[in-house]
UniProtKB/TrEMBL annotation:
It comes from Parvimonas parva. Keywords: ATP synthesis, Hydrogen ion transport, Ion transport, Transport. Belongs to the ATPase alpha/beta chains family. InterPro entries: ATP-synt_VA_C (IPR055190), ATPase_F1/V1/A1_a/bsu_N (IPR004100), ATPase_F1/V1/A1_a/bsu_N_sf (IPR036121), ATPase_F1/V1/A1_a/bsu_nucl-bd (IPR000194), P-loop_NTPase (IPR027417), V-ATPase_su_B/beta (IPR022879). This is V-type ATP synthase beta chain. Produces ATP from ADP in the presence of a proton gradient across the membrane. The V-type beta chain is a regulatory subunit. Residues 131-349 form the ATPase F1/V1/A1 complex alpha/beta subunit nucleotide-binding domain. CDD domains: ATP-synt_V_A-type_beta_C (cd18112), ATP-synt_V_A-type_beta_N (cd18118), V_A-ATPase_B (cd01135). Residues 354-453 form the ATP synthase A/B type C-terminal domain.
Length: 458
């Protein structure tokens, strides 16, 4: 039998202290009834003897200590899941906000989940096509991988996220694919942009959207990515689907974590973030992957904005330790009008070698990828040298690499947000650009591939 307590002793920000409690557990869900009959929800954050600290989802405004009652519900925050969630839009706590009917759940699942046991993991090795050349060709996304996008304030990461959600697919017949999109702390305009884009392009038919807006409570922001991942785990491991999870913006999530940590009077770590930020982020990122003996998979693309474009900031820094690479958006390329402004040199997919090659993409993929990287780096160096010493100081090879770098930015990177390139088109475009460079400089590609794809003319 559930007990009701009228022993609320203190309220500080989103936190509330209840005394005289019995049998209460960590993460347990709490129903709070205000003096005017309004109900709010929270969860147990800490227990000390007969005192429980409750974190409120809807905030603490208007709470009267004397007349407020609490009921501890005996279970953690759960999400009712069903295949009917595909094509629907929910708030950060899993309530429908698209004017559709309530979901009749097949089961209810604790949103806290758990990271995948390394022993049970299957190694990621299958290619996912995003339609974006800089990702597919040079920083290949592999099924079961977690590959974050590092952006900056004002950069078009929302456009990139929408493009990936719209275009991503797994190659092969009969593969069931879904996108779970979790947005944290975004503005109403951003939320409307995603909803309109998904609806207009038909991507909503295979997507589940969880939207937490900037004016929603911070504690809801902490629950949103776990709601999205719980839904993804159900679709992947119970229904055998290949699920792409896009989470934006993890910086807003970390800010909410810092806000709650400050309210709890915890000792702050780097830049005021809690000392357990690394551990907390890992509980999100490590829920991506494949399970041995199960057909489904979860691939994760978290998006975060680097404060002041600082890649050493705690959020991108710790994210880089946990995930398998990063895609970096460049302010320099953005100012040049290049869309999407993905800077390939510092970008990296640590699992790309496992998802490319014969039978997956094409036999020449690895060689051309290495050559394009080397050629673009040489071309950028040559351009910088020309600014300092003048173009006359460059060798013919340097001039060719500089032309290659210009063409690469203009044709390979700058594809726009509506162009969906197949992996064949991306690889063929790479060979077209490599024809700018003298054949003698193609030192990272095997001769048989040069003969087959470039021809014998320089």
């Amino acid at each position: 039998m559930l007990k009701e307590y009228k022993t609320v002793r203190e309220v500080v920000g989103p936190l509330m202290v209840v005394e005289g409690v019995e049998g209460v557990k960590y993460e347990e869900l709490v129903e709070v009834r205000l003096q005017n009959g309004e109900k709010r929800r929270g969860k147990v954050l800490e227990i000390d003897g007969d005192k429980a600290m409750v974190q409120l989802f809807e905030g603490s405004a208007g709470i009267n200590l004397r007349d407020t009652t609490c009921r501890f519900l005996g279970h953690p925050l759960e999400l009712g899941v069903s295949e009917d969630m595909i094509g629907r839009i929910f708030d950060g706590l899993g309530n429908p906000i698209d004017k559709g009917p309530k979901i009749i759940p097949e089961t209810k699942i604790d949103i806290n989940g758990s990271p995948i046991n390394p022993v049970s993991r299957d190694y990621p090795s299958e290619f996912i096509q995003t339609g974006i050349s800089t990702i597919d060709g040079l920083n290949t996304l592999v099924r079961g991988q977690k590959l974050p996008i590092f952006s900056g304030s004002g950069l078009p990461h929302n456009n990139v996220a929408a493009q990936i959600a719209r275009q991503a697919r797994v190659l092969g017949d009969g593969e069931k694919f879904a996108v779970v999109f979790g947005a944290m702390g975004i503005t109403f305009e951003e939320a409307q942009f995603f909803i309109d884009d998904f609806t207009k392009t038909g991507a909503i038919d295979r997507a589940v959207l969880f939207m937490n807006l900037a004016n929603d409570p911070a504690i809801e922001r902490i629950a949103t990515p776990r709601m999205a991942l719980t839904c993804a785990e159900y679709l992947a491991f119970e229904k055998g689907m290949h699920v792409l999870v896009i989470l934006t913006d993890l910086t807003n999530y970390a800010e909410a974590l810092r806000e709650v940590s400050a309210a709890r009077k915890e000792v702050p770590g780097r830049r005021g973030y809690p000392g357990y930020l690394y551990t907390d982020l890992s509980t999100i990122y490590e829920r991506a992957g494949k399970l041995k003996g199960r057909p489904g998979s979860i691939t994760q693309i978290p998006i975060l904005t680097m404060p002041e474009d600082d890649i050493t900031h705690p959020i991108p820094d710790l994210t880089g330790y946990i995930t398998e690479g990063q895609i970096i958006l460049s302010r320099e390329l953005y100012k040049q009008g290049i869309q999407p402004p993905i800077f390939v040199i510092p970008s990296l997919s640590r699992l790309k070698d496992k998802g490319i090659g014969k039978g997956k993409t094409r036999e020449d993929h690895a060689d051309t990828m290495n050559q394009i990287y080397a050629g673009y780096a040489s071309g950028r160096e040559a351009r910088e040298l020309a600014v300092i010493l003048g173009e006359s100081a460059l060798s013919e090879a340097d001039k060719a690499f500089a032309r290659f770098a210009d063409a690469f930015d203009r044709r390979y990177v700058d594809q726009g947000y509506e162009t969906n390139r197949t992996i064949e088109e991306t690889l063929n475009l790479g060979w077209e650009l490599l024809s700018i460079v003298p054949r003698t400089e193609l030192k990272r590609i095997r001769e048989e591939y040069i003969d087959k794809y470039l021809g014998k003319t320089e």
